[in-house]
Design brief:
This is DUF2383 domain-containing protein. The chain is mostly helical and about 150 residues long. The protein contains five helices and no strands.
């Protein structure tokens, strides 16, 4: 049982770190666009990702494991959000939205991959589906915003 809880916690910690990265990426995006509607959109996404992180931390703690520190940057999301940061030098709203979509798609893929594990407890499965659906909705909204600014 200990090995099972460690495996689940490790998977949740991977998502936790990616949500920290996404939150920071959205805060950077919010600070680097002028359009008030898009700025508010990024703020809502950052808040949402902060909430996702809190929910994941709670689940990890319930399994008696230690959640990752909020200062961690790892893996693919790190590279995606660093790419986003590099686009800020131009303050090009369309480029920032494109990079946000790319980051969200990578995040969505991570959630889908973990959800393939049919041994997840129902509470975690439900939580991850909720997060996945919210990320998909954000992608759809970002695409609309991107069309509006292009």
């Amino acid at each position: 049982m200990k090995k099972f809880t460690e495996e689940i916690s490790n998977k949740l910690n991977e998502l936790l770190v990616k949500n920290y990265d996404a939150e920071k990426g959205y805060i950077n995006a919010m600070n680097n666009v002028e359009n008030p509607e898009i700025k508010m959109f990024f703020k809502r996404r950052a808040t949402e990702r902060s909430q996702f992180a809190k929910e994941l931390r709670t689940e990890i703690l319930q399994y008696g494991e230690i959640p990752e520190d909020s200062g961690s940057f790892k893996g693919t999301m790190h590279r995606n959000w660093m790419s986003l940061k590099s686009t800020f030098t131009t303050n090009d709203t369309e480029a920032i939205l494109e990079e946000a979509i790319r980051g969200e798609k990578a995040s969505l893929d991570e959630y889908k991959e973990i959800l393939k594990d049919r041994t997840l407890p129902p509470s975690i499965d439900s939580l991850l589906i909720k997060h996945k659906n919210a990320i998909q909705s954000a992608i759809n909204t970002e695409k609309v915003h991107e069309e509006l600014v292009s």
